[in-house]
Design brief:
This protein has 85 residues and is an alpha/beta fold. The protein has one domain: 3-Layer(aba) Sandwich (Rossmann fold). A three-stranded parallel sheet has the order 1-3-2, sandwiched between helices. It is globular, with a radius of gyration of 13 Å. The N and C termini lie far apart (32 Å). This is DNA 3'-5' helicase.
Length: 85
C-alpha cells in the first residue's frame, strides 16, 4: 500500500483504545522515528528502541516503559534475538 493510505491506524487505534503498551516491530529505523514523531504529535506517547540508541538511552527508555510512560513502542526485530543490544 502506498504511503499515507492509513496503515498506521492498525496499531495506533489499539494503543488509544486499550490499556497498556502496544508493541510495533519494525525493521526500518527511519520509519520508526517518523512514526514516533507522528504519534507524539497526535498525543499518543510513543518511543522507539533500535540500534541507533546507545546503551544508556536504551536503558532509560526501558525504565520509562516500566513506568508506563508510553502507549506505543516501536522496536527493531534484532532486539528479540540479541538481548544485549
Amino acid at each position: 500500500m502506498p504511503t499515507g493510505s492509513g496503515k498506521s491506524i492498525c496499531y495506533q487505534l489499539p494503543a488509544l483504545l486499550l490499556d497498556g503498551l502496544t508493541v510495533v516491530v519494525s525493521p526500518l529505523i527511519s520509519l520508526m522515528k517518523d512514526q514516533v514523531d507522528a504519534a507524539n504529535q497526535l498525543g499518543i506517547p510513543a518511543t522507539f528502541i533500535n540500534s541507533s540508541l546507545d546503551g544508556y538511552e536504551t536503558a532509560r527508555r526501558f525504565q520509562e516503559i516500566d513506568r508506563q510512560q508510553y502507549r506505543l513502542l516501536y522496536i527493531a526485530p534484532e532486539r528479540f534475538i540479541m538481548p544485549d543490544l
